[in-house]
Amino acid sequence: MIKKYSKYAIALLVCSLLAACGGEDRKSLRVGAKPFAESMILAEMIAQMAEAEGIPVERSIPFGLTPKIMEAVKQDVLDVYPEYNGTSLTFLGQAPTSDGEASTATVEKLFKPLGLELTGKFGFSNDYAMVMTRERAKDLGVSTIGDLTKVSGLRYVVDEDFVQRPADGLQQMNRRYGITGSSTTTHPVGTEGKDKIVSALLDGSADVGELFMTDGQIAEYDLVVLTDNLGFFPVYEVAPLVRSDALASLKDLRAVLEKLTGKITAADMQVMNKAVDLDAQSAASVAANFLASKGLLPEDAKGSGAAKVAVVGDPGVVRGIDTARALRAIRSGYAGSDLDLSNSETPLETLAAGEARVAIVGAEAFYRLGDEGPMAKGLAEAFAVLGYKSGHLVGLANGPDSITGMSKIATGPRGSGSARVLEMLLDSFGIADKVEVVNSADDPRTQLLAMTRGSHDGVFLMAPSKDRAIAALMRNGFYRLLSLDEWAQGGHTARFSFIRPATIPADTYPNQSGAVTTVSTQLVLASPAKTVQTAGEVGPGTAGIDSSSAIPVSASAVESIRESLGAMDVIDPAIPVHGSLVPEITVVDKSLPFSADVSIINILMILFTVWILYLVALPSPRDFKMPDDL
Fold it and tell me: Into which CATH architecture does domain 128-225 fall?
């Protein structure tokens, strides 16, 4: 009996000790975010500040759109996430208001019975922005949302959340302003969706897009924000929406959140959003850098210890939608890393020397001009297609009619795709010694204006079709796109197979009445070659490259990057392809293999079979007669 009670006492003591130990453990803080840069950056700030105070954190960054994430915090799935007072009003069934203080007071009153509260606001408001390109707004005479009522066949491009919002979404805005006869294209919420919204505005397939006032794309692409002249949109001040029981159980949590109160301006947020959306930095690193700059985290937390992956492009690779998309895809292949983009006149040589992991280059970068034509370098292998760039030969309206009639042509800086392709065109035409090439890092506007002053006869640029800068300059009628018919008709593609004939359709640019024949090259992501070749398929490669430190992109990283980029064209067959993309061929040997063991067994089986047959063939004992003499 004593032993029995002793067992119970020991069990009770162990449970008490475990309970005591567990009582000292803090509950984890479950932090969530919506699936766009700003929400993820702010959520990371909350998480990192909490961890600095010793609070364990469980991240769900991102978690989901407003209906999902708000319900998650109500149902005790999450503890905290960044929310906007204007958004909260609409999802709580209240009328929007532009009065921030009144909005917050109403939201706090409605959230309290749900066990939720908004703590101190971060310090900025992120209102909806209906945006247009400056050129399109000027053409349509639009400066306010109300002016859109004068536009017939208005084309919107917005995110999916904006068309689903119950009180401050697209349909409600149209009803308030009396806008009719519009069409709408939607894209997923987040960075990729914003890329597509901005791309549609820039290429002219949409008139008006929906962004946020703190989005870096507005300043980056010089977009015009339409004035909300009827005050339709409410104010959207952001603050942590947190469960009251989390504030009670985590005694330092309220102090952590209050440290973030009023610390962020709209300008600060726009810079941080740009770092994630356009520069492909992680939300965690951007948040850590900002907090360290404000003295809210120690300096050694700056960058959150993220590894840097070096990416190189030729001098013509600049920040833009296509580059940002490529960088984000690359980051998906190197989870937890930040990217460092630089430019080099010899990007593939930089790659082969181990100074970069990935290159953003055109097909022309894989070749160099030799005495007998293009020669493969053998330094890198392509693993993903980003798109195409077309040759734009721009001349004066009253100038030479073709490239062969020019004596001086301006193009991009040395090593850029524009400069490389022009060099190859002139070499193939046999006029390289007759045409002076001016390499310049100036933007297209500066180069074309210099042409009007007689500085040169033409400007050659490799750029995506519908390039915005070229389109803006073609409006004045001083310039025209010249055809490169000589390339397609002269059999030049036989030598330069990676420079393909292409056509810029009529009306792609202002004052372009007919189709223009030109050339194009594929833009790809490249990895260091597994083994730097001394000879390529077309000729000898580049010697003297130390490839011992070059690390090819792994097959798993290639798969992740390609998956992030989505559907793409097949890599040009003139470009070396990454080994992981080469189909594996299994050769089946149909000849009979020789094996001593198997042969001996087969022989024994045959002998055994013969012996069995012999036994069967023996006469039956009943037929056997004894001899008479016995």
Answer: 3-Layer(aba) Sandwich (3.40)
